[in-house]
Amino acid sequence: MNPQSRRKQAGLSLIELMVAVAILAILALVAYPTYTAQVEKSRRAVAKEALLEIAQGLERCYTQFLAYNDAGCQLLFNGQNVALPFTAPRTGTAYYTISATTLTASAFTLQAVPVAGTSQANDTACAAFTVNNLGARAATDSGGAANPVCW
Predict the structure, then answer these.
(1) Is this structure's pTM higher than 0.90?
(2) Is residue 9 very low, low, confident or very high in pLDDT (cuts 50, 70, 90)?
(3) Which residues contact 19 (CB under 8 A, 6 or more apart)?
(4) 100 Cβ partners below 8 Å, 6+ apart?
(5) Which residues contact 83 (CB under 8 A, 6 or more apart)?
(6) Bridge partners (DSSP) listed for residue 111
(7) Is the separation of the CB atoms in 97 and 86 below 8 Å?
(8) Which residue has the higher pLDDT, 98 or 90?
(9) Contact status, residue 54 vs residue 110, Cβ threshold 8 Å
(10) Three-point CA angle 139, 142, 145, nearest 5°
(11) How far apart are CA 13 and CA 19, in angstroms?
């Protein structure tokens, strides 16, 4: 009997290794875009939450002072006083800036736009969110066209 015929194969052949690498590459190509889309979506949710929280604060100001822009008005976000424009981080890096495009005694319009230089600035489908004192919500893409799917 030949001593080499009794030896068991140890390890992987090159073809088996290449097949495993190819399968991992295909999984990565499918998973990464899905992952980044979910991250963008969660950051949008934080921006919309911040818009609504600040809008709610402005409504409290109107209830107290009968004006959205009264000097005594204190806006809160996560229990902290804020002034507009406001960059709204949840944790870590802030991805959206919240500002008042209109703020008068009788009306307001708040807008959330991505912070330039962040990965969220590449989100062309949902580039800006707005809410006003009537509760009307809107979202626009990077070209300024309305995109109701975002809100």
Answers:
(1) no
(2) low
(3) none
(4) 84, 85, 108, 109, 110, 111
(5) 75
(6) 99, 130
(7) yes
(8) 98
(9) yes
(10) 55
(11) 10
